[in-house]
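User: I'm putting together a teaching handout on how sequence relates to shape, and I'd like one worked example. Could you take N-acetylglucosamine-6-phosphate deacetylase from Actinacidiphila yanglinensis, show the sequence you're using, and then write out its predicted structure as tokens right after it?

Assistant: Happy to. First the sequence, then the structure tokens directly below it.
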Amino acid sequence: MAPVTTTQRTVLAGARVVLPSGVVENGRITVDGTRIAANEQAEQATHDLAGRGYTLVPGFVDIHNHGGGGASFTSGTAEDVLTGVRTHREHGTTTVVASTVTESLDALGRQAALLSELVEQGDLAGIHYEGPFISPCRKGAHDETLLRDPDPATVRKLVEAGRGAAKMVTLATELPGGIESVRLLADLGVIAAIGHTDAGYEQTAAAIDAGATVATHLFNAMPPLQHREPGPIAALLEDERITVELINDGTHLHPSVLELAFGSAGADRVAFITDAMDAAGFGDGMYDLGPLKVEVLQGVARLVEGGSIAGSTLTLDTAFRRAVTLDGISLTDTVQAISANPARLLGMSDRIGSLEPGKDADLVVLDEEYAVVGVMRRGAWVVRPEGRL
């Protein structure tokens, strides 16, 4: 019989801990290497987090993000992308899907090849194609001259350019080929997301029946909810098969609209996202978003030409803090929307999204005002709680 060996484990003790089962006061999380371990193991180095009102939550999971830290996921180099990833990690997002914007197919293919390498290295969780298969009527911050119908052969080509890393494609499913492309994506195991769409209620319902499962930034870049023409919003909110993305930055959605969406869909069908562009975690100034120029002023990004909102400068720690302190959403529901639900959508809930034994040691330490004071990813501190460890 092999000799018994012991492993040094680290315990974070004394903080409020948000678990799937609820909030535990004076809780404990045990970290063994890169994973969360059961708490009852011996030979543990304990770090006391008591006395400051700290809260431990799972690392945030962002399924819709175009960049940050002054760097772009949409057209940047590998180092640019890693700069953006590091910026969001420092704000608690331990899992990031890189989102593109509308470009030529050749440019998208080249960027997908670069991003897929970073997925293979474990720096990114996947690729989200936002465009070019979107409606010119609801294009937002996308170059109209590069938009195209979602022909299934072209959709397949872009998915294949990601070399297995493509996780989601946003489509205006009312366009020619839209329904067929939804079915294709479902068959390929890629999320079909309805967004930047001018579809009506019935068209949206048909796309959901075909296999669409996500609403790209609900309310934004789609027809408004009207009493005789409910449009896509009603169809997306009422169908239990749909998870709705919400940008909780105080700019994209009025607080009452956020409350309406959260209350209608329920906590298990909401995914908080950033839709961040380069300025997230960086500052005001002039930026590029794909081929378009963007000015960021007082934290709001708008196209220089036309003035459309061009993504956000949001980081998920701000979305978390707004949800709990301003929107009246409970800690458990906020964690579900910002960690557990997006992890489930990515098919990664066996590894991330909650603080449970066997999962990656991805966690965020928040102070009494829900500001980030510590971030751990796979057992290593990205941001160490100052003066406490």
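A couple of points you could highlight for students: The domain at 9-57+353-383 is CATH 2.30.40.10 (Urease, subunit C; domain 1). The longest helix spans residues 105-120.
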